[in-house]
Design goal:
CATH superfamily of the largest domain: Aldehyde oxidase/xanthine dehydrogenase, molybdopterin binding domain
CATH class of the largest domain: Alpha Beta
Number of domains: 3
Number of helices: 16
Strand order of the largest sheet: 3-6-1-12-9-10-11
Bound molecules: dioxothiomolybdenum(VI) ion
Radius of gyration: 27 Å
CATH topology of the largest domain: Aldehyde Oxidoreductase, domain 4
Oligomer: single chain
Length: about 750
């Protein structure tokens, strides 16, 4: 991989500014040396091991369990089913975690009803993992099977409006103008259907919960989750245990991508076993079992775009139908970005759901935008050929300077700069306009591009900061690091605020007892927790300035924070190094061992709502398509990103590269294949569920367009992560068309689809 052109956007003039400069992750060493412990790696004397048994039917009832063979396995302690489980609350309300969509959440081992194939129906607990697993395989469940319905495409006619939307998701806006008439009247039209198959997150770390029960009845749970406080909230409500008796820790998380936004069923199962047996228990899911919970929903889309001959958009018509479960309405809206990206007077957006006998889908990196922007950006490419205009030119011609739906300004939008930077780095100007223009040996070579957009969010968060004299600055919040660099960036923010070297800052996260933090999702941890950290350190700055002003002859007398600087582990009058006094001396002088502050960040929604807040990208791709095999190689990707101030360019670049790699997987490989006779995902392991591997990845270049957005966060940051994925698969699809003249409207674009 080539080195990316990174544009640091450090605050000018601070002179001591770790943010904006690249810092390697401070948790890197413990991870590569194996010292970082994950949820399934915590040990305690007397730990029992439990293995879940999953249903083999997709719908019906459990008639009886035949447990004899399972119980006969040496070391087996107990088999827990809905018949002998511990008390669980009966109201669905208690099962709603902080990110639950509308409806009635799945309740593991609650009753005899089977709602989907792979549903946990029993839990075998044993002295060893091997015994539990052996016994689980010997357990027999008799079912009364009922007919199931798992096929989205066969039931599109049953689609309906989603019931109440989850917080943070708005329903599609009402029609603007007269989209149908405008479409009919325009000379250039695209009218096409797109299909995106189901995908599973497949993080490296398996989902696991280790529940450690101590003598006082306190449960310490090491859980794989994107929010320790969400898991604690769930456990305490479902089992009716006071929150003070539960601690959830997720010190290190080996990837999650949204799969950990809701408590997964191993958490409830591990708690059940701990309650029943009154001992510590661990449940680890297998890779196979990780295909028996939420996934990115299969989605069918209909796009109609119309334009004048000179490329001005006249109509955008975007309808999406996605699957959900029978019990909850998972919503990711899919179509909303299509109303925001391009200026257009006539817009129709619609989003509907089909309930199926499957587990509720769950957010997966850039939920909604990943599929919705894909269809829009492929349709835009189709329109460009219809008109005979360069695809980038078409986008620039219809560039939205304010949100076309409601007229609100963007809080910042350097998308034009992304187009320019990306096109320049890629060499887009040299693109031959016609498809099938270039080949080498047996390969067609094509170039494609697409736009990406993702929401820039901020959520409430708390942080605490304690500065110890001659010791560390300890900053804490119940935040999560799913591998994205939270430990590092939070320490950077704190270090910068107080002018301390990074090594002197300890950032604590991953513990439900720490100050409140939202789940790590929506690429919003920096804007949320980062702003709380900045706020807590800001309060320390005030306290330290007051300490510095104690003496009558203090040069700091009468000065405000704006007139002083925190640099070189001390405080000085702005620009006057002679006045420098170390923070340690300040504390000693005041006879204090430490100073501390807490800060609650409450997003100013009154201000924010006046703006549309989003991150943007422009993705340029070169592919080679084998004309005999239909195989596609993505040789070159340039991803230009506008995401506010980039606080840690190294971690941000990693995030974008990860998104691009995933985009290549989504475009070419990833698909959870269901056998609808059984209603079950069949390729449920990493041998058969194809992810991009090293051999699939070639040249990836990341460019950041300078941006600074003080509406989204006081740090100027908008958040990176998900934006790296959006648009990548569309750019690949568009490049495949440019290479071959073949339009593939169905992802993943496997050789059979590219060839036929
Ligand atoms: Mo992300 S899908 O918000 O974890």
């Amino acid at each position: 991989m080539r080195d990316g052109l990174i544009t640091p956007v450090a605050e000018p003039g601070t002179g001591h500014s770790p943010t904006g400069t690249g810092v390697h992750r401070i948790d890197g060493r413990v991870k590569v040396t194996g010292q970082a412990r994950y949820a399934a790696e915590w040990r305690t004397p007397g730990l029992a091991y439990a293995v879940a048994v999953n249903s083999t039917i997709a719908r019906g009832r459990i008639v009886r369990f035949r447990l004899d063979a399972a119980l006969a396995v040496p070391g087996v302690l107990q088999v827990i089913t809905h018949e002998n489980r511990p008390h669980m609350r009966s109201l669905a309300f208690f099962y709603k975690d902080m990110t639950a969509p509308g409806g009635s959440p799945f309740r593991p081992l609650y009753d005899d009803v089977v709602r989907y194939s792979g549903q946990p129906v029993a839990l075998v607990v044993a002295e060893t993992f091997e015994a539990a697993r052996d016994a689980a395989a010997r357990l027999v469940v008799e079912y009364l099977q009922e007919g199931h319905q798992t096929e989205l495409m066969a039931h599109l006619h049953q689609s309906r409006q989603p019931k109440p939307l989850k917080a943070g998701f708005s329903p599609p806006p009402k029609d603007k103008g007269d989209p149908q008439a405008a479409f009919n009247a325009a000379p250039c039209q695209v009218n096409a259907h797109y299909y995106s198959g189901t995908e599973h997150h497949n993080p490296m770390e398996l989902f696991a919960s280790t529940v450690i029960l101590n003598g006082t009845g306190h449960y310490t749970i090491y859980d794989k989750t994107q929010g320790s406080q969400n898991s604690r909230w769930y456990v305490s409500r479902v089992f009716g245990i006071p929150r003070r008796k539960v601690t959830v820790r997720n010190t290190y998380v080996g990837g999650a991508f949204g799969a950990g936004l809701r408590p997964q069923y191993q958490l409830a199962l591990a708690m059940m076993a701990a309650i029943v047996l009154k001992r510590s228990v661990r449940v680890v899911m297998t890779r196979h079992q990780m295909f028996t919970f939420g996934h990115r929903p299969e989605t069918s889309q209909h796009l109609k775009l119309a334009a004048d001959r000179d490329g001005v958009l006249r109509a955008i018509w975007h309808e999406a139908i996605a699957e959900t479960s029978r019990i909850e309405d998972y919503v990711e809206v899919v179509v909303n970005w299509s109303g925001q990206l391009y200026a257009c007077d006539n817009v129709h957006l619609s989003y509907r759901l089909v309930p199926l006998d499957q587990y509720t889908p769950i957010d997966m990196r850039a939920p909604g935008a990943a599929h919705g922007m894909h269809a829009l950006e492929v349709a835009m490419d189709e329109l460009s050929y219809e008109i005979g205009i360069d695809p980038l030119e078409l986008r620039l011609k219809n560039y939205a300077h304010s949100n076309p739906v409601d007229g609100k300004p963007f809080s910042s939008k350097a998308l034009r700069e992304c187009y320019a930077l990306g096109a320049e780095r890629f060499g887009w100007a040299f693109r031959p306009p016609e498809p099938r223009a270039r080949r080498e040996a047996h390969e067609w070579i094509g170039w494609g591009m697409a736009t990406g957009q993702w929401d820039a969010m901020q959520m409430p968060a708390r942080a605490q900061a304690v500065l110890h004299a001659d010791g560390p600055l300890v900053v804490s919040s119940a935040a999560t690091d799913i591998g994205t660099g939270t430990y590092t960036v939070m320490a950077m923010i704190a270090a910068e605020s107080l002018g301390l070297p990074l090594e002197r800052v300890t950032f604590q996260l991953g513990d439900s007892n720490l100050p409140f933090a939202p789940i790590e999702g929506g690429s919003s941890h920096v804007t949320s927790v980062g702003s709380a950290v900045d706020g807590a350190c800001g309060k320390l700055r005030k306290q330290l300035l007051v300490l510095a002003q104690r003496e009558d002859d203090s040069p700091f007398r009468g000065l405000t924070l704006g007139q002083v600087q925190f640099v070189d582990s001390g405080l000085q009058v702005r620009g006057a190094t002679a006045t420098h006094v170390s923070l340690d001396d300040l504390l000693h002088g005041a006879g204090k061992g430490s100073v501390e502050a807490r800060y609650l960040l409450v997003p100013n929604m009154f201000k924010k709502r006046r703006f549309t807040r989003a991150t943007h990208s422009a993705v340029f791709v070169e592919v080679r398509v084998d004309e005999e095999l239909g195989t596609v190689r993505v040789m070159r990707v340039v991803s230009a990103i506008a995401a506010g101030r980039i606080l840690n360019p190294i971690a941000a670049r990693s995030q974008i590269i990860g998104g691009v790699v995933w985009g290549i997987g989504a475009a070419l490989h990833e698909h959870s294949e269901m056998d609808h006779r059984f209603g079950r995902f069949m390729n449920h392991d990493l041998a058969q569920y194809h992810l991009s591997v090293n051999a699939d990845i070639h040249d990836i270049e990341v460019v950041f367009a300078p941006e600074d957005d003080r509406v989204v966060s006081a740090l100027g940051a908008k958040g990176v992560g998900e934006i790296g994925l959006v648009g990548v698969a569309a750019a690949i699809c568009n490049a495949i068309f440019h290479a071959t003249g073949k339009r593939v409207r169905n992802t993943p674009m496997t050789p059979d689809k590219v060839m036929n």
